[in-house]
Write a structure and sequence with these properties.
Elements: H1 6-33, H2 62-86, H3 93-115
Length: 122
């Protein structure tokens, strides 16, 4: 007789249904119970407590977002490197090769971003 794994999937399905239901109920109650007092002052743009100067909709340079994404990329790299470096003496030799491949892929990404001028502040 083969084991049935259907039970494992039903538990996952119930968790997904329960999570979606909880989010739906919480957002619905928030919508029902929220105070609604529209006011022109509340609809104004808030800029550090001061009156906004110039146009409200300002287009930001895409370079800021590229820098942020590159920071996140290399921050995640550091998160992966730390536990690897701490346990390096206990790991088998092939793990060193895997980390070299990981670092090579990240290095290629950095070289590509550098070549495309993504790191040049304009």
């Amino acid at each position: 007789m083969e084991p049935s794994y259907a039970f494992d999937y039903t538990v996952i399905a119930w968790f997904l249904i329960g999570g979606a239901g909880f989010v739906t109920v919480a957002l619905g109650l928030s919508r029902l119970l929220q105070p609604r007092k529209p006011n022109p002052v509340k609809a104004e743009i808030y800029e550090c407590g001061l009156e906004p100067i110039g146009p409200v909709w300002v287009q930001f340079k895409i370079g800021y977002y590229v820098y942020a994404l590159l920071f996140v990329l290399f921050d995640v790299e550091a998160v992966f490197l730390y536990p690897w470096a701490v346990t390096l003496k206990m790991l088998p030799l092939y793990v060193v090769g895997e980390m070299v491949i990981f670092l090579a892929v990240l290095g290629l990404g950095l070289a590509y971003a550098w070549k495309e001028g993504a790191l040049h502040w304009r």
